[in-house]
Design goal:
The complex is a heterodimer of chains A (346) and B (589).
Chain A lengths: L2 H32 L6 H16 L6 H19 L6 H26 L5 H24 L7 H23 L13 E4 L2 E4 H23 L1 H11 L1 H6 L4 H23 L10 H14 L5 H21 L4 H7 L1 H11 L9
Antiparallel strand pairs in A: 1-2
Helix pairs in contact in A: 1-7, 1-8, 1-10, 1-11, 1-12, 2-5, 2-6, 2-10, 2-11, 3-4, 3-5, 4-5, 5-10, 7-8, 7-10, 8-10, 11-12, 12-13
Chain B lengths: L4 H12 L8 H26 L7 H18 L4 H23 L6 H19 L9 E2 L5 E2 L2 E2 L3 H23 L2 H9 L3 H6 L4 H27 L1 E2 L6 H14 L4 H25 L6 H16 L4 H6 L29 E12 L2 E12 L3 E5 L6 H8 L7 E6 L2 E2 L5 H6 L2 E3 L12 H7 L9 H5 L4 H18 L14 H13 L5 E5 L7 H16 L3 E5 L3 H7 L2 E6 L2 E6 L1 H6 L1 H8 L4
Parallel strand pairs in B: 7-12, 7-13, 10-11, 11-12
Antiparallel strand pairs in B: 1-4, 2-3, 5-6, 5-8, 8-9, 13-14
Classes of the chains: A mainly alpha (346), B alpha/beta (589).
Chain lengths: 346, 589
């Protein structure tokens, strides 16, 4: 192997790894705050990517309608939970966030989809649509289960994944799609060619890592989220609304997922079911990071990306085998290094 | 203990179904699939619901079973009956291998670890040349007895359901035994189980193998039902599906696995065949509806459907009282359990910069009640954990009967005849008081998993339960014997813990705040019991905050403050010790 190929593989690995890092971060965030292992993270990726690609191609994405439908569901859940103590302000607030907002976005989407909007509008709409889907999903599927065990939450998460994947096929069809580059242009440095797209990927990943770090370290909401992650009951006693923490976590996760999707879709063709595998690789990184550490997750994601790039070059048949088996030694090391005493509580 | 009558009725019903007139053959196919899924789910019930180990990788074990028989019966022409033990052996031994690396994983690492190798193995199945890559292997011979070939779904039906019912019986037998109690204690963390000699990694590995063998059996049957295998049904999706079969049915119940399989298989079938009629022309509507129904089901019955159904049945009256005339032989005692039983010398425990126990020395003599007192955070419970091997000391030494036991694991400490209770009660809430207490006698029984499954452990088991019943009687909880431990008051649960500790037949009993939550009369009864135990030759080391209780009971008192021993002596001298008064009441201004 010569240096050029090696450098090229490393570059490829870092670009993919950066995406996995973002997804890994989102998974860690959601797990820490809500104890949900977010398998639908992959669907957030494909929804974001395919909504963006559809809009750019001048088609109407079904996800906007889904957001409104889920919003109506979330509104119904809100009303049902508060049925004993309904008061006007609550109803109005819930109605605005759950129905009015997605309705406006739907209207905007219909308006813009007809006239091939510029890239920036496509990105903004896709992000808002997927963010709302994430938020309402938490309200409908996970908030009522917040008190149950990690296992039940996990199975619910699988259910949501199946439903979303099926809906993805309904909305986008079995054909793969590609979207326009977020940033066009390229430059070369030595033997390597950097495209605007890959630079965007690096920049956004770094921005997110720094942003999350600042959010959790410096803001009150960030600290509230961390408190919820450590001790739910304690956080509630301290006056933190844990449902709000869950909503913020899902909101962030869905935005991160959609953004990752928008960044990948100009590079590779995505299908309605591509998200699962991409999400799983983010998982691998998150697990290596122990589902708690953000910097470690980011580093692990880069390693996963690079290993994947090299194994697809040398043994492309066994690419997935190698990536997933990479976990075993890491898990072993981690659990031997810290034999935590865990007590599962129901 | 449990009645086998419902199982017999169920078996007869299942045997009769194919003979019902007008039974559509298609239903038989569905029942075959339900049986196959139920086998895997049953293993998961034991693994996940009972043992607390979540595995996404069960589909891979089904694959091992199926591919083993597929390769051997096609490429080497082996009879399917010969490949059955080989299929089980392959699944079982790969479970040992994968189990050794994964069951040590704690918390959420474990499910994710199983997901990882589950995926890895799936890709391996689809890439290996001798397994036929993505096309798999076809033309697998059918099962046959003599000239009778089980070619149709209706003929293999019996093989499948015999396997399901036999496996269910064996699994239920296993759960209702010495090994079963150890497995059922796993989910509640391993500290309590290990304190009574349960080797938790071994117990975890055991359930892991059990689940894998059941999955392998399902795979073997699957290969001969379909007569072809390919990698698709052994992937991550399938692994996840088995898990939610178990959860939907009720992950803690053997029959929950069967019920879950029935619900999920039928639901999928109904959705697949009827939804397109309602909503024509759209792709994966059934997946969407299926996913939504799954979430809805969990929100309505988070514990699964089986316990929900069972709650409609009239409550069964408590079980029989074990025959207490059966005696368990006493633990072999080291010669001369007299003089100094326990010697703690300069024991020290640091957590980072915090010195929880600072060079503490004291001893416990034979036939003596020693109390360890001190304000909150004085290091009393940490000292207990050092003695019982839950924590390892930073420095210093601990000896039992003159022999150093520094940093021996809890399972070894209990073998020396030291048993304990916990400050925060560690009982298994969904097991009866009797079963909880019987865990204490774990080391005094001998039956292993195989004898338990085959019900050859009954003599041993009867003795264990008799001993447990005797100790329950001794602490005065006979009436609560068959209640679930979780339904008792906290004070009673502490007493149950004492009974469990007594089941070890200990020479030294360590009690961590036994009187907390007890009423006055109960405290007096407890004190009387402890005196009786001392007079019978046992020593007691207890941590307690109730000064009246301690002063009247203890022969000697050791006082800790901020991890350091500040006084030692008889109750009378401790009461007037200025250091002790200062630690408890502060200095007069």
């Amino acid at each position: 192997m010569n240096t050029t190929i090696m450098l090229f593989l490393v570059q490829d690995g870092i670009t993919n790894g950066a995406i996995y890092a973002l997804l890994g971060l989102a998974l860690v965030l959601v797990f820490a705050v809500t104890r949900v292992i977010l398998i639908p993270q992959g669907e957030f990726v494909t929804y974001g990517a395919l909504t963006y690609a559809s809009l750019a191609a001048g088609q109407m994405p079904g996800t906007a309608k889904l957001a409104l439908a889920l919003g109506i569901g979330a509104f119904a859940f809100d009303l049902f939970v508060a049925r004993k103590a309904l008061h006007g302000r609550l109803v109005v607030r819930s109605c605005i966030t759950n129905i009015v907002l997605p309705a406006i976005v739907l209207a905007l989407t219909i308006y813009f989809a007809a006239q091939k909007p510029p890239v920036a509008v496509c990105i903004a709409l896709s992000l808002v649509i997927v963010a709302m889907i994430g938020l309402y999903l938490y309200r409908i599927a996970f908030q009522p289960l917040a008190h149950t065990s990690v296992l039940v939450l996990l199975i619910a998460s699988v259910g949501v994944h199946l439903a979303l994947q099926g809906l993805g096929l309904l909305f986008f069809g079995a054909e793969g799609q590609r979207g326009p580059a977020v940033l066009s242009g390229a430059f070369t440095a030595g033997a390597l060619r950097f495209t605007g797209q890959s630079i965007t990927v690096y920049a956004i990943t770094i921005a997110f890592i720094v942003g999350l770090w600042l959010f959790f370290g410096l803001t009150l909401y960030g600290k509230a989220l961390r408190a919820t992650a450590v001790n739910r009951l304690g956080a509630r006693l301290a006056g933190i609304r844990t449902t709000l923490s869950g909503q913020i976590a899902f909101l962030l996760a869905s935005v991160i997922g959609a953004l990752s999707g928008i960044m990948i879709v100009p590079i590779t063709t995505l299908y309605y079911d591509s998200g699962f595998l991409i999400g799983l690789k983010g998982f691998v990184a998150a697990i290596i990071g122990g589902l708690v550490s953000y910097p470690l997750t980011a580093v692990a994601a880069l390693v996963v990306g690079i290993v994947e790039a090299f194994s697809s070059f040398y043994a492309s048949n066994y690419k997935e085998v190698i990536v997933f088996m990479l976990l075993i030694p890491v898990l072993l090391l981690r659990s031997l290094a810290a034999p935590a005493v865990e007590e599962e509580k129901d | 203990m449990q009645s086998r009558l419902p199982v017999l009725v169920f078996a007869l019903v299942m045997a009769a179904i194919p003979h019902l007139p007008g039974m559509p053959p298609f239903w038989i196919v569905l029942l075959d699939n339900i049986g196959l899924a139920a086998l895997v789910a049953m293993g998961l019930v034991l693994l996940t619901g009972v043992g607390g180990l979540t595995s996404f990788g069960q589909a891979a074990f089904v694959g091992f079973g199926a591919y083993t028989t597929a390769v051997l019966s096609t490429a080497y022409g082996l009879s399917p009956w010969l490949t059955l033990p080989l299929s089980l052996l392959v699944s079982g031994s790969l479970a040992v291998l994968l189990g050794l690396i994964t069951v040590r994983l704690s918390g959420h690492y474990l499910p994710l670890g199983t997901l990882a190798w589950g995926l890895g193995l799936f890709y391996l199945f689809s890439k290996l040349e001798f397994l036929g890559r993505n096309d798999g292997i076809s033309a697998i011979p059918p099962l046959s007895i003599g000239a009778f070939k089980m070619l149709s779904p209706g003929s293999i039906y019996y093989a499948i359901w015999v396997a399901v019912i036999v496996s269910a019986l064996l699994t239920m037998n296993l759960l209702d035994s010495r090994t079963g109690r150890a497995i059922r204690a796993l989910r509640r963390g391993h500290v309590a189980a290990e304190a009574f000699g349960v080797h938790t990694p071994r117990a975890k590995l055991l359930v892991f193998i059990h689940a894998a063998v059941l999955a392998g059996l399902s795979g073997w049957l699957y290969a001969h039902l379909q007569r072809a295998v390919n990698p698709t049904p052994f992937g991550a999706q399938a692994g996840i599906e088995y898990l939610f079969i178990a959860v939907v049915g009720g992950a803690g119940y053997v029959w929950g696995g069967v019920l879950g399989a029935a619900i999920v298989v039928v639901l999928k079938e109904v959705l697949q065949s009827y939804l397109p009629l309602i909503l024509p022309g759209s792709g994966q509507v059934e997946t969407i509806v299926f996913g939504i129904m799954l979430v809805a089901l969990l929100q309505l019955a988070p514990g699964g459907l089986w316990p929900w159904l069972i709650s409609f049945l009239p409550e069964r009256s408590g079980g029989r009282k074990p025959d207490t005339s059966l005696k368990l032989e006493h633990r072999a005692r080291a010669a001369g359990e007299s003089g100094v039983l326990l010697q703690v010398e300069k024991a020290r425990k640091q957590f980072g910069g915090v010195v929880a126990v600072n060079n503490v020395s004291f001893d416990v003599q034979a036939r003596e009640i020693v109390a360890l007192i001190g304000p909150n955070g004085a290091g009393k419970s940490t000292t207990f954990n050092l003695i019982t091997g839950v924590l390892s000391a930073t420095s210093g030494s601990i000896s039992v009967l003159g022999k150093k036991v520094d940093n021996a694991p809890p399972q070894e400490i209990v073998k020396l005849g030291i048993s304990r209770t916990f400050q925060h009660v560690k009982l298994v809430p969904d097991m009866t008081v009797l079963e909880n207490v019987a865990i204490g006698a774990h080391l005094r029984g001998h039956s292993g998993p195989i004898t338990s499954m085959l019900r050859l452990d009954r003599a041993d088991e009867a003795k264990l339960l008799a001993e447990a019943a005797r100790q329950i009687e001794r602490v005065g909880l006979t009436e609560q014997m068959h209640q679930l431990a979780g339904s008792l008051s906290l004070g009673q649960q502490r007493i149950v813990e004492i009974a469990r500790a007594l089941c070890v037949d200990p020479m030294l009993l360590l009690l961590d705040e036994p009187a907390a939550g007890l009423r006055h009369m109960e405290k007096q009864r407890l004190a009387a019991l402890l005196r009786e135990l001392r007079d019978g030759g046992m020593s007691v080391l207890l941590v307690e905050h109730d000064m009246g209780f301690v002063m009247n009971l203890a022969d000697r008192i050791v006082v800790l403050d901020f991890g350091t021993k500040i006084a030692e002596g008889t109750p009378a001298t401790i009461k007037t010790n200025p250091e002790v008064i200062k630690a408890y009441l502060g200095v007069a201004a």
